[in-house]
Design brief:
Oligomer: heterodimer
Strand content of chain A: under 5%
CATH topology of the largest domain in chain B: Rossmann fold
CATH architecture of chain A: Orthogonal Bundle
Number of strands of chain A: 4
CATH class of the largest domain in chain B: Alpha Beta
Strand content of chain B: 25-35%
Distance between the termini of chain B: 56 Å
Largest sheet of chain B: 6 strands, mixed
Largest interface: A-B, 36 and 53 residues
Largest sheet of chain A: 2 strands, antiparallel
Helix content of chain A: over 70%
CATH topology of chain A: ABC transporter involved in vitamin B12 uptake, BtuC
Mean pLDDT of chain A: 88
Distance between the termini of chain A: 32 Å
Chain lengths: ~325, ~500
């Protein structure tokens, strides 16, 4: 045993990194450390800067504001862990939202049916993204960029660029309801977080996502059906965008053909701030949630401090750079 | 001349170099040998200015120097040829040689391409590379790229040339051109520091040999006054015979895999052979003879254009690696870093990834079962890692290779194919891999080994197939195989038996 130990240290000679033995050390070194630090810092900053930042209602407010961003970013995370990217999520949100709206308004579909079919639309577009990327061998960036304009164009065409509104009251609950003091969208956010966290950490699909993103050739030579698994991950991203689209339509009480535009960039920002690599193979759902919270804190806190929206945008950009720098250094 | 005295480098948790002395004389090949982790590459990095020393002195031509960074090293006449080439494939040779130092015309910023090409052509011919300087680097072979690296170093006025494992990317036949360039450099008075794992290689080029072990200087010799066995025992610090692998009777010996008339374009041409359980079958031949391509067809990594596969007596179709794994075939690929190991994943995750079906239920990972399997492989294969959760990127090459082998054993495969399993791996780890393969053979697995290291093939394999230009040209049983016969068939020199082509189809 003793000899085995000395051997093991001798083989790592020349390696700069040495493992921290305790869980504290691991936590400090973990990829979420940087963004967690950022979230805590902003929290402290805003709680001193404005009187109501830490109020329960305000925190739930933040939760409701970041629900859609988070859910979209969860889907984006699994795609990015596998080395891909999904630029179509904003357009998919609009497709799903308008689908639900049109089914209820123009075809008088029941609410559950409308929701179900609009989620199916999101899933379907995600699947097409996956198929085009993997089986036509087009880079995900290009394939989903094309889908972004295709989906947006079709939605604008169908709606003649006008919103669809006037739905059954029960549909409002999804985006506007409360369970006790908790906004219903926040409950959806928690459910999606748990599901996606479990998916990434505890399923074979999650493991394969890391393997494919880490090195798709090694993954293929290890017998993993890379194309199929990658397609499923794109489908999941489409589904997540669909869910976010339905929530948004309910919250605004209108199916807006222009909704969700720019969402892909916010989602990518949240994912990257959360420590997921742009090149795949690394990342986590926890990090993405923290990234979304950081961005939510920012816009909410700055608004409470009475800072102009345009100034907020500029500050957000700077904070993204700072956060990513910190989390890159922490590793 | 380079003199290093009492060199010391400490990384958190380990002492990489502990008072190392080393001299590199002008016009000589000064070899450093040692196992992975002995401190060879740390020494190279310090002299190259890539990392800073913590103690000791470095003297170049009698002047004591503090090497600040790679640029400073370059100014001092020190150049490094790393194992991974640092050339840009889409630029031509001249552009690579003068990258960052392009000669300019009188108007600054305008590159004098004609001068650059002329000077590059002169450099290339001076080291015997017969290629135009306008050739794109991506069109060059590995040995040619290495020569371009050397030309680049010379163009920077290098007087001290550090070569890290220069022979690792070369085949037996290509080594000759490296040696002749080294001879020319010696004539020009360049001090060459040569790092290698391959002892046969070392003894062919070395003028002086220095042995490092665990960051300490062990011994220095003139090459003529020592021998491989002595060096090996100094390197590993125990008396380990280079040749000895204990051999036992296998539990079974029957045909498990039969390849019939496999072809793919001009690369693999009508190849048929059988693989038996309880044997180590060697595939010898030059790089480019179709060995790697053949096993990739069998494994389903590439598509064959024709041929049939019979596994355990039944005809089977292997369309992708997944099919091969389900049958019980594993392939340890040629390039460990880009094809074998997932660097950013843990030892445990690497071991379980190919046999993931066995470590899950309904798509949910069975973490306990994974950990148990990983621990048992780490123990039984003596995988040197502080924990099963260690990322593979932090392990040495030999340890990574064991992890990749464990990955295939974790699939419960019956046939395991290994493509260059010991390339770039130190002597100690090599001996352990040989011993592992021998154990697998004894357990009744069929082991197929591709290797360019002919002595390795000869001492490891029960039966050897030699490939030449996409065909199997010779089958040799263990007792008839010598390095010389294998080499002769590998280079298409069948004449010695007078019936070479009759043997081509067995």
């Amino acid at each position: 045993m003793q000899t085995l130990n000395t051997e093991s240290t001798s083989t790592v000679t020349g390696v700069t990194e040495v493992r921290h033995p305790s869980w504290v050390g691991r936590a400090i070194k973990s990829q979420e450390a940087g963004v967690l630090l950022g979230v805590l810092l902003l929290g402290v900053l805003f709680s001193f800067g404005t009187p109501h930042f830490l109020d329960q209602t305000n925190l739930f407010n933040v939760g409701r504001q970041i629900t859609m961003l988070s859910i979209v970013a969860f889907g984006m995370t699994v795609v990015m862990i596998s080395g891909g990217i999904d630029l179509s999520v904003g357009s998919v949100m609009a497709v799903a939202g308008v689908t639900a709206a049109a089914l209820m308004k123009r075809y008088e579909a029941a609410v559950p049916m409308a929701v179900f079919l609009s989620l199916l639309a999101g899933l379907g577009i995600g699947t097409i993204n996956g198929l085009v990327t993997n089986y036509l061998c087009i880079p995900a960036f290009i394939a989903t960029l094309a889908m972004m304009t295709i989906a947006r164009g079709l939605v604008l065409l169908y709606t003649t660029a006008r919103p669809i509104y006037d739905f059954p009251r029960s549909f409002d609950f999804i985006g506007q309801g409360y369970v006790g003091p908790v906004p219903f969208p926040v409950i959806l956010l928690v459910i999606m977080f748990v599901l996606m966290y479990l998916m990434v950490r505890f399923t074979v699909l999650g493991r394969y996502a890391y393997a494919i993103g880490g090195n798709s050739e090694v993954a293929r030579l290890s017998g993993i059906n890379v194309k199929l698994n990658s397609t499923v991950l794109f489908a999941i991203s489409g589904l997540c965008a669909g869910i976010a689209g339905v929530i948004l339509t309910s919250r605004m009480a209108a199916g807006e053909p222009t909704s969700g535009s720019g969402m892909e960039l916010d989602a990518i920002a949240a994912v990257v701030v959360g420590g997921t690599s742009m090149f795949g193979g690394k990342g986590s759902i926890v990090g993405t949630l923290l990234g979304a919270i950081l961005m939510g804190f920012l816009s909410n806190g700055l608004s409470l401090m009475g800072i102009e929206p345009f100034v907020q945008m500029a500050i957000s950009g700077v904070i993204i750079i700072v956060a990513v720098t910190i989390s890159a250094r922490a590793r | 001349m380079l003199q290093v005295r009492g060199l010391r480098k400490v990384y958190p948790g380990t002492v990489a170099l502990d008072g190392v002395d080393f001299d590199a004389y002008d016009g000589m090949v000064n070899v450093i040998v040692g196992e992975n982790g002995a401190g060879k590459s740390t020494l190279v990095k310090i002299v190259a200015g890539a990392v800073q020393k913590d103690g000791g002195t470095i003297t170049v031509d009698g002047n004591r120097v503090e090497i600040r960074d790679p640029h400073h090293a370059q100014q001092l006449g020190i150049a490094v040829i790393y194992q991974e080439f640092s050339l840009l494939p889409e630029l031509n040779i001249a552009e690579n040689i003068f990258l960052g130092r392009e000669p300019v015309r009188r108007v600054p910023g305008i590159v004098a391409f004609d001068a650059m090409q002329r000077r590059s052509d002169e450099l290339l011919s001076s080291i015997g590379l017969d290629v135009s300087a306008t050739t794109l680097v991506r069109d060059l072979t590995n040995p040619q790229r290495q020569l371009v690296e050397i030309a680049k170093a010379l163009s920077q006025g290098a007087k001290i040339l550090l070569m890290d494992e220069p022979s690792a990317v070369l085949t037996e036949a290509e080594l000759g051109s490296l040696y002749s360039v080294i001879d020319r450099l010696k004539e020009r008075g360049v001090a060459i520091v040569y790092i290698s794992h391959r002892l046969d290689d070392v003894f062919r080029v070395a003028d002086r040999i220095t042995v490092l072990k665990d960051g300490k200087w062990v011994a220095s010799f003139e090459a003529g006054k020592t021998n491989p066995d002595a060096i090996v025992s100094l390197m590993v610090g125990r008396d380990l015979s280079y040749e000895q692998v204990s051999r036992n009777e296998p539990v079974s010996q029957e045909t498990i895999l039969e390849v019939r008339h496999y072809s793919r374009g001009n690369v693999v041409r009508d190849v048929s052979f059988q693989v038996r359980t309880g044997e180590i079958l060697g595939l010898a031949g030059l790089v480019g003879s179709g060995r790697t391509e053949l096993v990739r067809l069998i494994f389903g990594a590439d598509r064959k254009s024709s041929g049939e596969l019979v596994f355990e007596g039944k005809p089977v179709e292997v369309r992708n690696p997944g099919d091969a794994i389900r049958l019980g075939i594993g392939l340890l690929p040629e390039d460990r870093k880009t094809q074998g190991v997932l660097l950013e994943m843990s030892v445990k995750q690497n071991i379980c990834i190919a046999g993931q079906r066995r470590f899950q239920r309904f798509g949910i990972l069975d973490h306990a079962k994974e950990a148990a399997a990983a621990r048992s492989f780490v123990t039984s294969m003596r995988i040197r890692t502080p924990s099963i959760d260690q990322l593979a990127v932090h392990l040495s090459g030999g340890t990574q290779q064991k992890v990749v082998l464990a990955k295939w054993l974790a699939t419960n495969c019956k046939v395991v194919i290994l493509d260059e399993p010991t390339r770039g791996i130190d002597v100690g780890a090599r001996a352990e891999i040989y011993q592992l393969l021998e154990e697998l053979r004894t357990r009744g697995l069929a082991v197929v080994v591709i290797s360019s290291d002919l002595p390795e093939v000869v001492r490891l394999c029960d039966r050897i197939l030699v490939m030449y230009k996409g065909r199997i040209v010779k089958e040799l049983p263990r007792q008839d195989a010598t390095v010389e016969t294998l080499l002769a068939y590998s280079v298409g020199h069948f004449a010695q038996e007078g019936n070479g082509h009759a043997n081509a189809q067995h």
